Amino acid sequence: MSFTYHNPVKIHYNTSLENALAHIKGELPSRILLVTSRGWLMRGIAKRIESALPHARIHIISDITPNPELSHLQALKAKLSGEQAIIALGGGSVLDSAKFFAMQGSISASGGELHINHQGTKEQGRTQEAKNTAQNMEGHTPINATINANARLDSSVLADMSFSTGLVRGKSPLNLQRSALESKRNITPLSKAQNIGTLESSELNLQALQDSKLKQDSKLGQDSKACKAHDSGLHTSNKGTQEGYTQEGRAQDMQSGRAQEVRQEPTALPLFAFPTTAGTSSELTQWATIWDSAARVKYSLSHPALYPQMAAYDMSLFASLPREVLLHTTLDSLSHACEAIWNKNANPISTHHALRAIELILAYLPRLLGDLRDCVARECLVRASIHAGLAFSNTQTALAHAISYPITMESGVPHGLACSFSLPLLCECIIDEAAKSTLEPYRAEITRLFERLGVSVRARDYGLDSARIEMIFERLNARAKNGLLDIERAKEGLKASAK
Fold first, then answer.
1. Sign of torsion, CA 237 241 245 246?
2. CA 253 to CA 232: how far, in whole Å?
3. Are 49 and 20 in contact (CB under 8 A)?
4. Strands 106-110 and 85-90
5. Count of CB atoms within 10 A of residue 290's CB?
6. What does the DSSP assignment read for 150-198?
């Protein structure tokens, strides 16, 4: 099989806020926007950041609400002026709001579509210098690896892919097409190529890079056709990274169920993420979820420019999470992991991460909910969220999430519950044999997990009846089609649980 895996976010794991900022303060500009919540502001988080970045002028936005509303974010964005980078500290709503602010240009909606009015500014690019070492579980994967069926990838390699550290220095991540041909050639690594300085310009000079690679291969006596075929696979990540990723912002209309597409060439301010909940994994994806409750629309802003430059995990920031938030956010992680497996976009690396997330959640969620002081269990669930994010960042979500949005929008059911209560049922509806066999060892345990946690898996307990379920399935958005599932069987199963 051939597949592509891509995630450009640099991970600093089990570090302190101050140490993570020390990694980047020499690269940060002077004007910074801090996006956080009032709760973190009251705990003195702004003062800690100001002390760590004494050179910076920091503007703070702290009035971020759960399921951030488009109109509120538009009003806040309109007041911004001159910010050059963004630090986001909070849960999924804070991180998604920060991505909204990071996009250059105004963002508006009409006719069920999200419109990005691009200002035409040059791409800021990544401020992180690529490093080829990993310390304290520091991970960074700015290379798209497309692995050909003829190139051997054994289980020992997959086992070590949780936090890959192979890097290419430059402003934009590159896609590296790996083939059987390449495995037989002694090609100088890109990081050592001549004229690699072109990668550090504000706009990637792809032709210079291609010329450099062709010269290298010519020196090695390689056939020029083979060289051109290899180099044709090199492209910047913001030109499209793999099947399923585009340059388009997508808006899912709750009423029509259509995926509205907005073609764009946006740029974004550099974003540095400090998550405080272990669930949404927004810090590891190119998506932001924005809501318009008045219009009954959930928008998904999507572009490779929205990947944060860095995600830093300070365990002290997770220590005060209440039980309910822990439960809901971890069930969101579980849903991300399962949906990454029964997914048409799945690949061996994404599946590896998804399975590790499931294993950690099954083992440690009941343990942590039984004792909120259990630091080991808490840290394991943070790692589960990272693995889940690295999984579904490549696959997108599927049916469980598609049916959850109207449930959250119309009934106020927390997202983590709305997107996870159907998991035991959907495990029974998998139509792909590979996905089915992958999840089979965990299927019964996933069902028992909901029983142990006292979380209902019956549709009626979430305000659903047969008519409403029928309506939801009539209006499913495009994400539902990612699932390798028998949708009709899933619908009938939900109806049966609504009685």
1. positive
2. 37
3. no
4. unpaired
5. 26
6. TS---HHHHHT-TT------SSS-EEEEE-HHHHTS-PPPGGG-TTGGG
Q: Where in the chain is the domain with CATH 3.40.50.1970?
A: 1-173+244-320
Of 365 and 81, the structure prediction assigns the larger pLDDT to 365
pLDDT bucket at 303, cuts 50 / 70 / 90: confident
Fold of 321-499: Dehydroquinate synthase-like, alpha domain (1.20.1090)
**Stated pTM of the model:** 0.75
Is 80 exceeded by the pLDDT of residue 154? Answer: no
CATH topology of domain 1-173+244-320: Rossmann fold (3.40.50)
| β 297-302/287-292 pair status | antiparallel
Are the CB atoms for 109 and 270 separated by under 8 Å? Answer: no
Residue ranges, CATH 1.20.1090.10, the chain = 321-499
What residue has token string 């365990």? 315
List CB contacts of 471: < 8 A, sequence separation 6 or more. none
pLDDT above 90: residue 439: yes
For residue range 113-146, what is the model confidence (pLDDT) as tens digits? 677 776 544 333 333 333 333 334 555 555 555 4
Closest CA to 307 of 144, 158, 419: 144
Compare 30 and 187 and report the one with higher pLDDT: 30
Of 223 and 307, the structure prediction assigns the larger pLDDT to 307
Tell me how far apart the alpha carbons of residues 338 and 426 are, in angstroms, rounded to a whole number. Answer: 9
Closest by CA to 101, choosing from 282, 293, 270, is 270
